[in-house]
Amino acid sequence: MKKKWLVLGCFALAAGLSQFLWLSFAPLVSFIEKTYGVSEDRAGLLLMVFPLTYILISIPAGSLIDRRGYRFGIGLGLLLMAGFACVRVFAPGFGWLLAAQAGISLGQPLVVNGITKLVLDWFGKEEEAIATGIGTVGMFVGMAAGMVATPTLVQWCGFQMTMVIFAAISLAVTALFFLVVHPNPSNPAHVNKIAEPAQLPLLQQLGALCSDPSLALIFTLAFLGMGFFNGLTTWLEPILAQNGIDAVNAGIVGGCLIVGGIFGAAVIPGFSDRMHRRKPFLIGSTVAALAAIYPLTRSANLSAVIGLATALGFFFLPAYSLMLQICAELAGPDKAGAATGILMLAGNVGGVAIIISMQWVKSAQTGFLPAVHLLAIVLCVTALLANFLRETHPSLRAPLNK
Questions:
Q1: What is d(CA 142, CA 119) in angstroms, rounded to the nearest whole number?
Q2: Mean pLDDT, the chain, integer
Q3: CA of 181: how far to CAs of 33, 47, 177, 238, in Å?
Q4: Cβ neighbours of residue 243 under 8 Å, at least 6 residues apart?
Q5: Distance between CA 142 and CA 327 in Å, rounded?
Q6: 254 or 100, which is more confident
Q7: How confident is the model at residue 188 (pLDDT cuts 50, 70, 90)?
Q8: Is the pLDDT of residue 334 over 90?
Q9: What is the 3-class SS of the chain, one letter each residue?
């Protein structure tokens, strides 16, 4: 069925857009400081507002998707992102620009949290992990495009015209989504599920999900794993600067890490489907990252660092789609949206916590070396805890809520 791949492609575009609009300011922090006369900390709020918003509304977004369906949730998120992307075009000052970013950030959880429900609706059990992997590829492409394309466009056509281009892209992706994406007509059970009222109040639903030991464990792994990735990418430039690698080359290293993740997310979940296993691939991704983290952050050889970053991205970033799939398989289709919301909440809390912790533990004498030690400890704990995870592939076990 070609339709399901078209639907998945539209989701990948939507997910990529959410990351693109977020990280488009990552390479513009110095530009924003000079243009609007604000401090580095205030300029950084244009980026920090996204994980902070995610923490606040991830769970309500997931619950909304469970109640109203993924088309409603993702579509609402896209409308918010497109609308506030247009507001950025006319922002007269930094306050308006930050408000527009906050508005866009409201749409991101609605878009990203919809992936598990969409995949469960359109794809069979033997394709779910690879479909989730392809959906997350869109996110990684959006990250890379936001960091690479934005400074080039600003230099070429100016900041306001760049915002016009981004708003036009947002409107186009939103229109395409509403034209193409609908619930699967051959899956009437999906329609019945989203039409049913919630049997339990939201807080009781969340309590039931979090009290399940297997789900609590995957939420903890998301906290650690996504925290590791966010901490590494946030402080990658100053970490590499200690080894004599300048900001331009650090940007190349970061881009290679994400490009590696794009290929890994397109390949490794497929092997997981074919092998009927999730757990070994999740553990393997963590062990691979642990093997790469010290040479990546300590080497002054740019070619070696680029190779290590690409390898780390290839093996580690697919863990994101694997965790999403494991979470959905544990929760079952009727609770997948809320469970994904909790998972993303845990991951964003972990990101904020580890970013702040890395800055707190860095030393005046050894710089970010203690922070690298912290990342290694996080990976060790993640690999250890992953060993206690139950195997969730549908061929081996049924969802826990059935």
A1: 20
A2: 85
A3: 40, 29, 6, 42
A4: 297, 298, 299, 300, 305
A5: 23
A6: 100
A7: low
A8: no
A9: CHHHHHHHHHHHHHHHHHHHHHHCCHHHHHHHHHHHCCCHHHHHHHHHHHHHHHHHHHHHHHHHHHHHCHHHHHHHHHHHHHHHHHHHHCCCCHHHHHHHHHHHHHHHHHHHCCHHHHHHHHCCCCCHHHHHHHHHHHHHHHHHHHHHHHHHHHHHHCHHHHHHHHHHHHHHHHHHHHHHCCCCCCCHHHHHHHHCCCCCCHHHHHHHHHHCHHHHHHHHHHHHHHHHHHHHHHCHHHHHHCCCCCHHHHHHHHHHHHHHHHHHHHHHHHHHHHHCCCHHHHHHHHHHHHHHHHHHHHCCCHHHHHHHHHHHHHHHCHHHHHHHHHHHHHHCHHHHHHHHHHHHHHHHHHHHHHHHHHHHHCECCCECHHHHHHHHHHHHHHHHHHCCCCCCCCCCCCCCCC
Average pLDDT over residues 262-284: 88
Query: How confident is the model over 108-161, as pLDDT tens digits?
Result: 999 988 888 898 888 887 787 788 888 888 888 888 888 778 888 888 899 999
Predicted confidence (pLDDT) at residue 15 exceeds the cutoff of 70: yes
pLDDT in tens, 223-248: 999 999 988 887 887 888 889 988 66
Q: What's the whole-model pTM score?
A: 0.75
Please return the burial class of 196, using the count of CB atoms within 10 Å of its CB with bins 0-12, 13-18 and 19+. exposed
Tokens standing for 193?
Answer: 């599920």
